[in-house]
Amino acid sequence: xxxxxxxxxxxxxxxxxxxxxxxxxxxxxxxxxxxxxxxxxxxxxxxxxxxxxxxxxxxxxxxxxxxxxxxxxxxxxxxxxxxxxxxxxxxxxxxxxxxxxxxxxxxxxxxxxxxxxxxxxxxxxxxxxxxxxxxxxxxxxxxxxxxxxxxxxxxxxxxxxxxxxxxxxxxxxxxxxxxxxxxxxxxxxxxxxxxxxxxxxxxxxxxxxxxxxxxxxxxxxxxxxxxxxxxxxxxxxxx
Amino acid sequence: xxxxxxxxxxxxxxxxxxxxxxxxxxxxxxxxxxxxxxxxxxxxxxxxxxxxxxxxxxxxxxxxxxxxxxxxxxxxxxxxxxxxxxxxxxxxxxxxxxxxxxxxxxxxxxxxxxxxxxxxxxxxxxxxxxxxxxxxxxxxxxxxxxxxxxxxxxxxxxxxxxxxxxxxxxxxxxxxxxxxxxxxxxxxxxxxxxxxxxxxxxxxxxxxxxxxxxxxxxxxxxxxxxxxxxxxxxxxxxxxxxxxxxxxxxxxxxxxxxxxxxxxxxxxxxxxxxxxxxxxxxxxxxxxxxxxxxxxx
Lengths: 239, 297
Known about the structure:
The complex is a heterodimer of chains A (239) and B (297).
Chain A: E1 5-16, E2 19-30, E3 34-39, H1 45-53, E4 60-65, E5 75-78, H2 92-97, H3 112-124, H4 140-153, E6 158-162, H5 170-187, E7 190-194, H6 198-201, E8 207-212, E9 215-220, H7 221-224, H8 227-234
Parallel strand pairs in A: 3-7, 3-8, 5-6, 6-7
Antiparallel strand pairs in A: 1-2, 1-4, 8-9
Chain B: H1 2-8, H2 15-37, H3 41-63, H4 75-100, H5 105-125, H6 133-139, H7 147-166, H8 168-176, H9 178-183, H10 188-229, H11 233-258, H12 262-293
């Protein structure tokens, strides 16, 4: 397979301290793809994501980013929104501006161009009207849009999302997925999204990485997300 | 009015005490904002106590001739060294243990508080020097502030306020979303270390000047009051500093007028303001809910 890849995991083991959560992981993420990282609660999806972004160093193996023209690709990260403390009195715009921190050196403040860019990112995430509202007081779906705008503000090559539709009603969840699908199409971004809501994401993703009991199954979504393969993977009988 | 003119006069006998109260009223709340945001309020209680223990240990080592003799004029430096060493070492230890995920944060902070308190007393009791100057330092006699102490405090707080202002963006990012900061390739450990160094330095110098009780009071109460009233991060920081400065000055005036100890008066006043802010917020909330529901028919 000669496909152009952006992220490669070679025989990687991840976990906490001495506890191995996943091992022997080999993944090549195609450039410009929209990949869903699926699996049940506790299967190690978030641990794997945290290793990819550098929060938890891998226990063994190599995580590599392909760089076409020199510098490492920029990551845009959308965390689980519950992880962010509501004690911070930040507006939507201030949260999005954090995405520009990678381009503004220490001791320097955000300029007009950063504010304009942040506002533009909010607009493209469908959250232009949330710039002045307090982030902690937004609804789940609104927070998610602001966090997606923040990740876009980093001008990323790879957008990584950790359960962006968790705890959100079906209509909002659908709107978030449509937004991500549009961002993927229009900006030709590579997306890696953790989710356990297969129904919400199946029509948008092209590739699937399925974590189950420490094992990985991966492939094209149209090949893996068929009834037979799902039954096999889930060990369930559909009625 | 007469009293105000007297206190504000440039030749006022206790002018150093007024200046140091104002400096602490300004700098401690700005640092306290970060303790509140990172939910490290208990650390704000424990670290001043650890800092006191550092001062007691430095004087004990001096009294027992374990460290070389210092002139009386260098005692301030000795106390500062003890205070800063203990505070920064404790912060470093907390950070390492947190990173390794051992035990509970509350347990560690509680243990540090109680052990530092006990050791301060033990070191004081067995120190012949403890009968005079040292006890005053630990009690935080704001009345007895030398020009050298004032200069040290002003210089340190200048650095602290400049660091908080310059690196606000970085401190906010690593405090609000550590994972995102890592994904943007920020040196999270480095920024944490700088923030904790700023916190440690402020506490060390403040404890040296006004003692652990007042330091704790000014670290946390203005920030907690401001958080109830502010609607943005900028308002939060500015309001905390304004509350700190105003209550430091008012506290000094009240203490001077009624011959009370300055430190405890300041803290009691802040406590009163905390209660008032709580009631004000409740009242405003009820009014806004009432306005939304409209008149009862």
